[in-house]
Write a structure and sequence with these properties.
GO molecular function, one term: DNA binding
Number of helices: 14
Order of helices and strands: HHHHEHEHEHEEHEHEHEHEHEHEEHEE
CATH class of the largest domain: Alpha Beta
CATH architecture of the largest domain: 3-Layer(aba) Sandwich
Helix content: 40-55%
CATH topology of the largest domain: Rossmann fold
Protein name: LacI family DNA-binding transcriptional regulator
Strand content: 15-25%
CATH superfamily of the largest domain: Response regulator
Number of domains: 3
Keywords: DNA-binding, Repressor, Transcription, Transcription regulation
InterPro entries: HTH_LacI, LacI/GalR-like_sensor, Lambda_DNA-bd_dom_sf, Peripla_BP_I
Distance between the termini: 60 Å
Length: about 350
């Protein structure tokens, strides 16, 4: 006999499995509807006065969540490799959540912070909506955003300088004599898509090249979509002599299409990607790419979150990680030791509202 409710009676009352109850009571990632059912059942049965109550009273789970758009994207894997050791050294476990870039899922993750299944959250949303901003403002635990947020948003923020990165890439292509430089971009309603599209137009103007809508194709940040978009651009403008791609996966899709069509890379068409993922150096030909400091951004985000957990009242900080251009065979025509063209190498940190 037991003197009070058990995990079995909570599971029966909530209508969920015993394993689900165990996950909730131990602070492990679980669907929010399941969390709500288990917590309600536990409170009804009085279990909240013991194990759950102790967790709520301490207000510490020693867990931090990282919510990303696509767990299969090498950019996020590079971030995880830096986030986890920083958190582990401070006694925290890392919980991963892939949102598939669905805004409603990201907002649900932010709202779920009130359930206190983690002590803080690192999030990298592709889109930042008004609902994101309202939910961020009401978040019940510290949050760090990897990616740009609007001016005045009071949240710790780690961002890339993709505009400078695009300029580095187009300067490089221009120096190689390329003049019909196409852009294969991601969706313009995403933070990176909008930023890279604007940067492309600005860089062309600075180089004295005209902006031509026929040289721009919008796809998505996946290899298959990169191939589709590149094929559409090349069909419309077969005279293109270079492609600036919004990420490495798009660029690899473009190389697939070029190779299938009999075009040589880079003799006929030079290709540049962004993010400098592990795939860039391993591809054939190896891919010239703009590093946006994925690993550095992950580490900076983890450090900001830990500092926020210790100093909750300080002003928000913005860390900007500078880009680097790594020149490889897809533009140089040979497999060289990577060359680095960089702006100042240290991330820039500023206090005050993120801008």
């Amino acid at each position: 006999m037991t003197d009070g409710p058990t995990i079995n009676t909570i599971a029966a009352r909530a209508g969920v499995s015993i394993a689900s109850v165990s996950r909730v009571l131990n602070g492990l990632p679980t669907r929010q509807e399941t969390v709500r059912k288990v917590m309600a059942a536990a409170e009804e049965l009085g279990y909240v006065r013991n194990a759950v109550a102790r967790s709520l009273k301490s207000r510490r789970t020693h867990q931090v969540a990282f919510a990303m758009a696509d767990i299969g994207n090498p950019v996020y894997l590079a971030m995880v490799r830096q986030i986890q050791p920083v958190l582990k050294a401070a006694g925290y476990r890392l919980v991963l959540h892939s949102t598939d870039a669905i805004a409603a899922d990201e907002i649900d993750v932010l709202r779920s912070l009130g359930e206190r299944y983690v002590d803080g959250l690192i999030m990298s949303p592709l889109r930042v909506t008004d609902e994101h901003l309202r939910t961020l403002a009401a978040a019940r635990a510290p949050v760090v955003i990897i990616g740009s947020v609007p001016d005045g948003t009071r949240v710790d923020n780690v961002r890339a300088d993709s505009r400078t990165g695009v300029r580095l890439a187009l300067d490089h292509l221009h120096q190689l004599g390329r003049r019909r430089i196409g852009l294969v971009n991601g969706p313009l309603d995403t933070v990176p898509g909008a930023s890279r599209g604007a940067a492309y137009a600005e860089a062309l103007g600075a180089l004295g090249l005209p902006y031509d809508e026929d040289l721009v194709e919008i796809g998505d940040f996946y290899r298959q979509e990169g191939a589709r978009a590149a094929a559409a651009l090349l069909t419309r403008r077969p005279d293109v002599d270079a492609l600036m791609c919004a990420n490495d996966l798009i660029a690899l899709g473009a190389v697939d299409v070029l190779r299938a069509s009999g075009r040589r890379v880079p003799a006929d068409v030079a290709v540049v990607g962004m993010d400098d993922t592990d795939l860039a150096a391993a591809s054939w030909p190896s891919l010239t790419s703009v590093s946006l400091g994925s690993a550095e951004r992950g580490k900076a985000a983890a450090e900001l979150l830990l500092d926020r957990l210790l100093n909750g009242e300080r002003e928000p900080r913005v860390v900007t990680v500078p880009p680097r251009l790594l020149v490889r065979a897809s533009t140089s025509g040979r497999e060289p030791t990577p060359q680095y063209t960089a702006v100042p190498s240290e991330p820039r940190t500023t206090d005050g509202a993120a801008g």
